[in-house]
# Entry
Amino acid sequence: MIVYGIPNCNTVKKALDWLKENKIEFEFHDFKKKGITADKLNAWCAVFGWETVLNRKGLTWKKLTKEEQAKIDNQDLAIAYLINNTSAIKRPVVEKNGHAILISFDEVNYTQTLL
# Structure
């Protein structure tokens, strides 16, 4: 299992703590350091939808002008933006056996999906 995110994100911290408490082994992929590919983002968008993968609640997105935000109106443009602004990816994303299964952190969803 791979958990994608950035280590200083509170939501990522909650997810990692939950995984550790439940003794679930995982590898952590810090996309600030390791980056992310368009193929990976496209795969996540196929599962969750590009509008979910793009975190519009975060500071990175809010720094954009309304005009800049309005221009990101489809998956291809969202992915191009996210490759260069990994902090705007909704996180964490959890993959199991190469398939995305969870995005963000919700204890009920994690319990139902992973336990």
